[in-house]
Predict the 3D structure of the following.
Amino acid sequence: MGRTFSSGAVALFVASVIIIAGLLIWSEFDSWQIEFEEVERRAVNSAVSAAQQADQAFQELTTVVVAIAASGSDAGKVVTSAELTEYRDNVRAMGIMAGDLFVLNREGRTLVSSVRSGADRLGEDAVRLLLEEAGGLGQSGYRIGKLIKSTAGNTLIPIIAPTATTDGLLDGAVVATVDIRHFSGTYQDNVSTNGKALVLFTSGGTQLLASSGAESKQFADFAEIFEKAGEADRGTFRYFDATEGEQRIAAFYKSWFSGLIVVSSIDQGVVLSQWMKAAQYRWALIAVLVTLAAIMVLFVAKQRRRQEELDAKLNRREWEFRVLAENTGDLVGRLNFEGIWQYASPAARSVLRVDPKDLLGQNALEQVFEQDIPAVSDAVDQLMHQRSPVTVEYRLAGQPSEVWLEATLSILPSANDPDLNGIVCVTRDISSRKRLEAAMTQLASIDWLTGLANRRVFEQQLARTVADRLTSGLPVSLVLVDVDHFKMFNDTYGHACGDECLKAVGEAIARVAFDVGGIAARYGGEEIGIILQDTDERDAYTVAETIRAQVEAIGIFHERNVPWGRVTISSGVATLRSSELSPENLVRVADDRLYLAKKDGRNRVVGASPSLAA
């Protein structure tokens, strides 16, 4: 080795330097991309977290606002100041800085509110703005409005729901408010020296809150955000802040509940500076790597000798492989390229339920359940084509109960000995994991409170049933059930008793549905739907009446459900045939009849009665 480098060694050295430099450049570029993607991910998470905090505050108040507004012109009569005050105090007890609740008429006069005498109120400008926003909502719905000021100078975020006359004209609005100080921990305290910013917008583009404390105003620069928010619930983008003269990385999230949009952003220069600081340490390794490359050239001459030493150790490694294989719980085996077992570790007794000696000379497909053979064959083909490990799951053949296995297949490398070529197969029993996955799948389809199927399963099953009956021409019936005066029940006895009531009603409905081969699911709140396949009007009405009677017979005390004094239900029944059949039509008709059942006095079934269906 005392000789000078040969031309080949020099060429190898130069090539090594070029390769190392190229790899470094590629690595740094990839590192920046990863860092950029991580910043975007954190920005999205920050926006999601802030939006969820806002939704938590608004969701509690939206429920009561919409419920009161549904009473139309009677909104000022169905609720008292004491009830509004109690609800406001309950929301505040949850840690939400709820402001007062108001019912306004179309002239802006307060019909009823939670405001104490002489306390902070809404100013005339705030009331006028609220009524303008209510007018833009039509006859129903709700909106998170623009910031308003109270007479005491407090900044409030309103939740507005319009009330309408029977003719569909605007009659006023129901308003709940949240003090902007509720969000100070998320927005005002988010000001930092690392270039981060957080902004909350309405779906129309009005800024509600910002970490900089800026007042509400329109941001034309963010028009692109609101376009994207109409297409997806979250996303990322970049923009140039002309005020600060900086390029920013930003992400947005649009709430599914309130429609609010949160924008989280960070100065791209700050991110780049932090990344550059970390990259400097990596760049310092360039000289070291070049030096190592030179040293590697000195060892080129020794590579052949080392290869010979490695070949000499191959037999020992084979022995070590057997020692490891025979002391692990996984089955380790070797197959030739025809799939014949050449070696199987002792774990074959627990995994394949067979002595390893009995496997030798057998085709591995003999242990595969017949229906899974194509999947295993495809995995072997993929292994032979890609020459990289492949994992496949299959069932064990010839077992009294289902046994699931997972096999990872790898090519056994050659060491200049064709007899050692083949496939290494590592197999383990995953039956427990499969049972757990099945249990988790089942849990995902059940409503945790009632034990009935959930809304997602209901919609899937209804669509599937309707599609099947479009070709057969057989009828499909749907019963929609609603617990009478359930809100009063909750208000009187508490939500815990309300939950127990829904459980009891759900169990009674489930028993009847099971007896007639129907599918019962919690449709929403206190509403339950029962899908009746191949059931005509007469039988569907009979089923609904049976359910009504059994629920009433439970005898759950409900003093405010006059005149019965116990829990009762109202039901709407719809039956459609192929010419008019669709999931939407079925639900619409059943819902309309449920509405009639409540309007006609409750504790009844509205549909085609047995006499009418005869």
Remarks:
- The CA atoms of residues 272 and 278 lie 10 Å apart.
- DSSP finds 18 helices and 21 strands in the chain.
